[in-house]
Structures are given as C-alpha cells and as structure tokens.
Specification:
Shape: globular
Strand content: 25-35%
Distance between the termini: 30 Å
Radius of gyration: 19 Å
Number of helices: 3
Largest sheet: 8 strands, mixed
Length: 245
C-alpha cells in the first residue's frame, strides 16, 4: 500500500551488523542476514525525526548479494582492559527502503505540530542531503550513506535467481516504547517484539506493523516522558521557518 506521506531512499555501506540477541550472550556478535525493522527505523530517525510523528517501515529490498565477514575485535571490558571477541558483519550492503509516518496520538501536547505537508517535505529534503545526523547500519562502527531512490527500480542481486520465498525464521523485530504503544496491553511498558520475516522474489521483505507482531515480551514498566511548555517556546516561529526552508 502506498501512503501519501511515503518516503523512499537507498542506504548503503561497507559493513553492517544487525546483531542477533542470541549470539551476544558470550560477548560476541553475529549479524542477521537482513536488516531489522528497528535498525531501519533508527536510520530514519537519523535522517529526520520529531516526537510528533512515528515512522512506520513498510518494506526493504536487498540490492547486493548477502555475504559475511568475521573480524577479531578487542572490545572494552566492563572490568577494565580489553577482551578478545569475533564479530560477524555483513559486507558491502545496499538496501532500498520504503516508509511512511503517522502521528503520535499519545503526544497531545504536540497536536499543533501535525502538519503532514511540512514534515513530509522536510523528510524528503533531509534524504536528499544524506540525513541530519550520522547514519549507522546496526552499530556505530558501520557507517551508512543515504540517498533518494525509487523503491523497486534498478537491478538487484535477487531479481532473477530466487526460485521462491525465503523464510528467515524467528527474528527480532523491534522495541515498543511506552510513548508509541498502540495496544492497551503495551501501554506503560517497554516491550520487545519478534516475528518471522520472509524474503519475496526480487529481495523484497514486507514488514509487519509493530502492533501486528504477536510474539513479544514485556521488558519493564516505562512511563511516558512529558514535555513542558518551555520545551516548545518559539515553536510556531520555528515551524514557519521550516515550512519556508
């Protein structure tokens, strides 16, 4: 489904690490073969984000062949000094992403900032400029680069050599924070979500919406941070400058 405020972009990098939580128990990290919903949402947050809106990732298209590389790493130990660990990264990655935003209805104090035309245009300009902040592919040591694209256009590594869908099994989807909780059962909690992604022909993976994930676990109670009037002093003037930019 194509939404009116849809954005499309390509993100690429030399390495990526979308770590599987199961492999991190011993201090080592191994990447999933595909990006997680939360990682792509984080990339969009680096491009453009405000608490007024919530980014929804609709789909990702894997453009380059999936290949991994294992490196010896010396991470800092909690007890001082350095440990020795092996991290398995994805190598030479490139993805096309399609997403849209929706209003955060739990932020009634920001109702006056719900200008779809303004936010959509700013987001598109920030994509053209490569984002407002540094972009990372899963972890900080994996720098990413963003540029505009048309989702589905261009040749991809899995356009012709996929006989059918590829099931990636049980994987991490993302985290639902208290200020983004849609379902009553998620209100007032931090909840981790899981799902079963399937790669369709042409390397396309369509994501479930956060509230559609049925596999989840409450991590801890969480309160919604409240913004005060002084946080938005001059908001109307700043909003007008953004519209005119």
């Amino acid at each position: 489904m194509q939404y009116r405020n849809t954005v499309e972009f390509e993100v690429s990098g030399d390495y990526a690490l979308f770590s599987d939580p199961v492999t991190r128990v011993g201090g080592e990290k191994c990447s999933y073969h595909i990006p997680t919903y939360e990682a792509l949402k984080g990339i969009l947050h680096s491009v453009y984000w405000k608490p007024t809106l919530i980014w929804i990732i609709d789909a990702v298209r894997v453009m380059n062949p999936i290949q991994t590389e294992t490196k010896g790493i010396r991470p800092t130990s909690y007890f001082g000094g350095n440990d020795l660990a092996y991290y398995t990264y994805l190598k030479d990655v490139r993805y096309q992403v399609r997403a849209h935003f929706e209003w955060n209805l739990l932020r009634e104090e920001l109702a006056g900032d719900r200008n779809e035309h303004k936010h959509h245009n700013i987001a598109r300009r920030m994509i053209q400029r490569g984002g407002r902040r540094d972009v990372f592919l899963g972890v900080r040591e994996c720098q990413g680069y963003v540029r505009p694209c048309v989702f589905g256009e261009g040749a991809g590594a899995y356009d012709d050599n996929m006989p059918g869908p590829v099931d990636y099994g049980f994987q991490y989807h993302g985290i639902t924070y208290a200020d983004e909780a849609v379902l009553d059962e998620d209100q007032g909690n931090m909840t981790v979500r899981f799902w079963r992604p399937v790669m369709q022909p042409r390397g396309i993976i369509e994501f479930l919406r956060p509230e559609e994930c049925t596999y989840k676990r409450v991590i801890r109670p969480m309160e919604i941070k409240q913004f005060h009037d002084h946080n938005f002093s001059g908001l109307e003037e700043f909003t007008q400058k953004e519209v005119e930019a």
